[in-house]
Amino acid sequence: MRYGVSGSGFGNGGSDSGLGEEWGVRAARSRALAVLRVRGRALGAAVLPAAVAVVLYAGEVTGHFTGTGWTTARWIVTVLAVVVLLAATAVALVVARARPAVTPTVELTESAAPDLHRLVRDLADRLDVPAPSAIALTPDCDSWLEDRSHRAHGPAAVPAGSGPVLVIGSPFLWWMRVGELRAVLAPVVAGTGPAADPDIAAARRFVRGLDAAVAVPGEPGLDPLRRLGARGVGGVARLLLRACGTHAAEMERGVATAGSERAQAVDHGTRIVAQEQVGLAYAGWDRLLTRVALPAWRMGRWPSRLDAGVVSALTELSHRDRLAEGYSSRLGERPACDLLEEPGAVDEAASLLAARLFHGGPAEPGPDWAPVEWSRYPEEVVDRKWRADAARLHDVLDRMAATAEPGTPEAPTLTRVLTHLTAAQEPGGPVAVPPEGDDLPVVPAGAEEAEREAAAATAADGAGTEDPAAGDSDEGTDDTAEVEDTEDVDDTDDADDVVRNPAADVLAAALSARVAREEAEREARIVPPSAGGVAGFSGPDGPWPLCPLLPPRTGRDLLADHVTALVCCAAVDTTGAAPGLDWLDGPALLVGGERAADLGPRVLALVEEGDPAPLRAWLSSTGVRAEKPVRLV
């Protein structure tokens, strides 16, 4: 179970430094007792029929409950008691044995990070709380305590009775200084105190077991009978979670309050600065994953130094936002990654885990899943991505042309795409169709123009038909005017919804089908690990990726990306431009050593409106020869 920013002292109260003297922990303990009362009521309801049966049998022995009616009642209650006890036993066993969710992490042993372990122990001593039992890293900008004492965690489990595991966001180690990291971890480490309280620990175990039991029906490999039973158990667990959910949330809120209270005395001034760095690190990390890492993952490459990359991204952000002076002053302090013995190896492991979490890549490198260094990123990712997209775009155009008019494929030039996306399509002309087997709707050329003409003819017919009651009263005239105004608004909305470039829609549909097919083939080549293949990484959280970064792209987005890639290939082949890496925006075209930032809007004008003028002006100013064939993969 994951515990957020929490913590305080330990013990059961009675001393000035114990839990009992802190308001947050007292509130947390009262909520924990409320959770345990829900458990007690459930247990009481389960044994109630058995207790009634015992009373009935005792009455028979003493001669108070005799006769046929009492005998029938004893049998009915006995059967009911047996059924209820069996069901309660099944629920208890499933709750006790269900595997709780555990966050995929990179374990940091004391030999791999002795200075970091020493820092955490010293921090726990200053807070007067137990030290965490272990330390792990996660590719996320957050830190928390996680209970891994459940035996179902396998090798990832810690011994029973040990404290929780401290999980630290890996970007913090590379971006923050040592003092800032200590200040950020102080309220989290303080949470080991409440974790040792018996009532809070018991309530957490109960809630964690219920949460795991709810996910049991969705586990693979269950036969129909066992799945039916699991659904019943899941329903009972869900009911109990609803009964104690509010108390559990308030309990964790009280623990978090206690942790903040206890951590006030630890580097208070530094904590304010460190919290600002947390927000900055989150912004840089999100930008790095979505703009830089994701294109590489889609190409079958995973950057092996993501945490080091976030430092470059945030440095670039600092320069753009004119924060370089404050950043330079921080560079004089010791970075937190110096607390690791081998920062490079840890960064590589965290980078591979990030690819699994956010993209669903394999657990191990392979021919289709190779690491890439930042120095090789422009060549191995950017250039390959552009040329692969350009090749895919021309292949789709070849198949569409072969479907309409079989013949020799045209050369892969930028002029061909410009002509295709800007050619006027007359009603009754040839139908542009996606390649065979794409299972996508066919949009006839000129269909939109024909629909507009039909709508105009209908409007003209309606205007020529007079309403006999139109001149009866002024009120009728006003109503007619209102209806006409409404129709004008509707016509304006319909005009906005009209597709302005049907050729782009057809090409986008074909590209979408092609990309979806290629991604399905790539996933089929990757053999997923078995349910127990990687200890601690499988569980009720669902299939990989657990946290997809972006929703699926639309057809127009894909088409714009492919046209941009083709333009970049033409620029590289004809003008000496070069692929590059922008730490905040990802793949970039470098023209004369500077990033071409004005290319995107010009491509969108071509794709969305069929207007090639802005792009042709850019091609002319940069010297790109659109008629020359580009080099494909």
Description:
This protein is of the alpha+beta class and 633 residues long. It is built from 20 helices and 10 strands.
Which features does this protein show?
alpha+beta; five-stranded mixed β-sheet; three-stranded antiparallel β-sheet
Question: What is the count of helical runs?
Answer: 20
Q: Low-confidence runs (pLDDT<50, min 5 residues)?
A: 3-21, 425-498, 527-542
Principal-axis shape equals flat
Query: Which sequence of strands runs across the widest sheet?
Result: 1-4-5-3-2
User: Mean pLDDT across all residues, rounded?
Assistant: 79
Order of helices and strands: EHHEHEEEHHHHHHEHHHEHHHHHHEEEHH
Q: What is the CA-atom radius of gyration, in angstroms?
A: 33 Å
> Mind describing the biggest β-sheet?
5 strands, mixed
Number of strands: 10
Q: For the terminal residues, how far apart are their CA atoms? A: 47 Å
Question: Structural class of the helices, strands and pairings?
Answer: alpha+beta
Beta-strand content: 5-15%
What fraction, in percent, of the residue positions are helical?
A: 55-70%
Secondary-structure map:
Elements: E1 2-3, H1 23-62, H2 68-97, E2 106-108, H3 114-127, E3 134-138, E4 143-146, E5 165-169, H4 170-175, H5 178-189, H6 192-195, H7 198-214, H8 224-263, H9 268-298, E6 301-303, H10 306-320, H11 324-331, H12 343-359, E7 370-372, H13 377-404, H14 414-422, H15 447-464, H16 474-497, H17 502-525, H18 555-575, E8 578-582, E9 586-591, E10 594-595, H19 599-609, H20 613-622
Parallel strand pairs: 3-5, 6-7
Antiparallel strand pairs: 1-4, 2-3, 4-5, 8-9, 9-10
Helix pairs in contact: 1-2, 1-7, 1-8, 2-7, 2-8, 3-5, 5-8, 5-9, 7-8, 9-10, 13-17, 13-18, 17-18, 18-19, 19-20
